[in-house]
Design a protein that fits this description.
Blueprint (H helix, E strand, L loop, with lengths): L6 H18 L8 E5 L5 H9 L4 E4 L2 H9 L8 E3 L8 H4 L5 E5 L2 H14 L3 E7 L15 H9 L4 E8 L7 H19 L6 E7 L6 H7 L3 E4 L1 H4 L3
Parallel strand pairs: 1-2, 1-8, 2-3, 3-4, 4-5, 5-6, 6-7
Helix pairs in contact: 1-8
């Protein structure tokens, strides 16, 4: 991001890069959704991103999201929760978010489903996969994915729309691509299975420093923060 450029200009530059990568991967540019990752950014900046035409806004922190929601930061764009979701806060965002991207345990599935049923809604989610097997990160391990999808398909009030991943940060581009390829293969494999309340519509992977490679590997939803808003 150019420090002298506006949020609207940055969104356009990211869109252009997304379009180029999508075409290169044999897809329509409109097939890749741009989520503005708005962690720590004030409501005014978020509204600028929405006005610039991002497809959705993503937040990492429950309290911050609730506060900005009260200031109408997200009006005009779907709201996603993209951060680590603690069990004791899960109920607070059900029905507030259009999509919870970071569901990585059966406990969260139960909590979200129960809250959604009480609100008489169905909450859309993505299952987070810990593709790098990092102990400090949330998400199910690749070999646990089929089990949690089967479990979620039998849980009322919850609907799975795909997968999300935050691969390990690597300076080696080839290693990043290996992780992206691995999660895409899981996405393809799970797309072939038939579950109730599960449809593989979205593969959310790729951030400001990696979204081009992620799109080339098959991602159709990218979470972009600093390339839109600037460094934190």
């Amino acid at each position: 991001m150019n420090s002298n450029s506006s949020i609207a200009e940055n969104v356009k530059m990211v869109r252009d890069a997304i379009s180029e990568a999508a075409i290169k991967s044999g897809r329509n540019p409109g097939d890749v959704k741009l989520v503005a990752a708005a962690k720590t950014k004030p409501a005014e900046m978020v509204r600028e991103a929405v006005a610039a035409g991002v497809d959705a806004v993503g937040e990492n922190r429950v309290q911050e999201m609730i506060e900005k929601h009260a200031h109408a930061a997200y009006t005009g764009a779907p709201l996603h929760f993209i951060g680590h979701l603690q069990s004791n806060k899960a109920g607070r965002i059900v029905g507030l978010c259009d999509l919870i991207e970071s569901v990585g345990s059966k406990a969260l599935v139960d909590l979200i489903g129960k809250k959604a049923v009480s609100l008489e809604i169905v909450q859309n989610v993505l299952i987070e996969v810990n593709i790098g097997r990092e102990p400090q990160k949330s998400g199910v391990l690749p070999e646990q994915l089929e089990e949690i999808l089967d479990y979620t398909s039998q849980t009322k009030g919850i609907n799975v729309l795909g997968l999300m991943a935050v691969p390990p940060i690597n300076e080696e581009n080839e290693r990043n691509c290996n992780y992206f390829d691995a999660i895409f293969q899981l996405y393809v494999d799970m797309s072939k299975k038939k579950y109730d309340n599960v449809s593989m519509c979205f593969l959310s992977m790729g951030m400001s420093d990696s979204y081009i490679d992620a799109i080339l590997a098959g991602s159709n939803m990218v979470r972009i923060g600093s390339a839109i808003f600037g460094k934190r």
